[in-house]
Amino acid sequence: LKDLGIDVTVGGFLGKDNQDGFQLLFSDLGIANRFQVVPGRTRINVKLTEKDGEVTDFNFSGFEVTPQDWDRFVSDSLSWLGQFDMVAVSGSLPAGVDPDAFTDWMTQLRAKCPCIIFDSSREALVAGLKA
């Protein structure tokens, strides 16, 4: 989107232990960074694709979000997310985030920004669709 001249802001949780590469990329691309830094490492996912098209996924574990981290994220994000015409919510729930709390946040987000692109799976998908 940024390459198309569209202003982009990113947010969520970012692990302190490996934040530098992410922070540098956001800065280099001119992307506004609203990530909340928490202890631990941001998880990465690796896909290996065989010549026959078979894909193997390696989904590494990441940090755990405390209830205090989540509460701060909810308060902070709801104070600025309403300024956007569109919000993309993607990925899985970080360890420590209660699916019901995620549903509550998504419900509040919908009241502020009616155009939400939602891409998730498992418990995060179920929790988000409840909103």
From TrEMBL:
Domain Carbohydrate kinase PfkB: 1-123
InterPro entries given in the database record: PfkB_dom, Ribokinase-like
UniProt keyword ATP-binding present: no
One of the Pfam families matching this protein, by short name: PfkB
Class of this enzyme: transferase
Keyword vocabulary terms for this entry: Transferase
Gene Ontology cellular-component annotations: cytosol
Protein name, per record: 1-phosphofructokinase
Annotated organism of origin: Serratia marcescens
Gene that specifies this protein: fruK
